[in-house]
Automatic annotation (TrEMBL):
Transmembrane regions: none
E.C. numbers: 1.6.5.2
Pfam families, per database record: NAD_binding_10 (PF13460)
Coiled-coil annotated spans: none
GO terms of molecular function: NAD(P)H dehydrogenase (quinone) activity
Name of protein: SDR family oxidoreductase
Gene3D superfamilies on file: NAD(P)-binding Rossmann-like Domain, UDP-galactose 4-epimerase, domain 1
Natural source organism: Sphingobacterium anhuiense
Highest taxon of the lineage: Bacteria
Keyword check for Ribonucleoprotein: no
The entry's keywords: Oxidoreductase
Amino acid sequence: MKIGITGATGHLGRLVVEKLKERTASSNLVALVRDTQKARDLGIEARLFDYNKPDTLVESLKGINHLLLISGNEIGQRQAQHENVIKAAKEAGVEWIVYTSLLHADTSSLVLANEHLLTEEILKSSGVPFTILRNGWYTENYTASVPAALQNGALFGSAGEGKIASAARADYAEAAAVVLTSADQQNKVYELAGDYAYTLAELAEEISNQTGKVIPYKNLSESDYAKALIEAGLPEGLATAIASFDKGAANGDLYDDGKQLSTLIGRPTTSLTTVVEAALAG
C-alpha cells in the first residue's frame, strides 16, 4: 500500500509525513514534490511532481494507492492545478484521494473558498473515492505576527470581535495522517477547527501575559489594515488578502465549534498558549 503526499516539503506536508511515519512504515510513503533534493531529509521515496505539468503527473502517480492532495499555494491557479492532479490520479489508478480544503468552503466569504469548493466539485464528480478535510486556520498564521507586534507595541488587525477557532498546523497534519491510515473514511467531509476560539484582542492579551509587556489589539478597517501591511513591506496583493481574511474572521468564517478535529486525533487541539510560547521561543 503506497500513500502519496503532494507538497510534502511544505510546512504542512512535512508534518504529515512525520505523523504518517508514526502510523505506517516509511516504505509505504511517497513524497510528490517539485524539487526532490528538498525532500532528501524526509527519509522516504521522492518523485518529481508539479501541478502545472499535467503531462508528467500520471507517471509519478503510478503505484500510488492513496493520495493526499495538499492544496497549492498559488491563489487563482489552484482550481486548474488541482484538476490536473485529480485527472492524473484517476488515469493512474489511484484508489482514494484525500484533499485539504477550507473550513465551511460552501458558505465561507473568504476569497480562498471558491477555488476549494470548485476543487471539491471536481473531486466528487471524478469517480475516485474521496475524503475532504476542510481545514480551519492555522494558529501559526496569527502567531507569525508576534515579532511585529512586539516591535510595534501593538497587534494590528481588522477582525473586530470575530472568534477564530484555529489549531496548530501539527493538529491538522495529524488528522490527515489518521484519516489516511484508518478504515471507513471514504466519501466523508470533515469540518476541522480548534477546540478553543479566541479574538485577536485575546491573542494580544496572551502575548502580553507571556512577555510581560502591554501589547494591545488595535482594530483597523479592512482598507486601513491593508495599507498598514503595505507600508510594512508586504506586496499589495498579499496585504489585501490578509486584511480580507481578518474581515472573514469578523464575519465568523474562521469559527466552528463541532470539535471534529479533536475527535479525529483523539486529544484536545493545541492551545493558543502553547503556540504563542513556541512563537516567542523562535
